[in-house]
Design goal:
39% of the residues lie in helices and 20% in strands. By secondary structure, the chain is an alpha+beta fold. Strands 1-2-4-3 form a four-stranded antiparallel beta sheet. It starts with 7 loop residues before the first helix and ends in a 7-residue tail after the last helix.
Length: 101
Amino acid sequence: MAVAPLSQKEIEDRLAELPGWSLEGDRLARAYHLDSHFAAVALVVHIARIQDELDHHSDLTLGYNTVTLTVNTHSVGGAVTGKDFELAHRVEAIAPGHGAH
């Protein structure tokens, strides 16, 4: 199945379903603030597992108690695609205090 870049309208519509996520340049982005450094490290490990399952990887930045993700799809020239939103939804589902809506 070919992956195609999303239009600006499609991106905006999909972002409306993901509170906390935003478009920064040509990437989806989200920062998670956790209770401790250990919790932040644990979240990174869980995100890495999801990324391997999807075979789609974001840039992750680990701070003391913060995890920041930015993602786009390199295979279509660094545009935002449905793959990026799939990853974002999967991460939201496991993020402490964020996934249980």
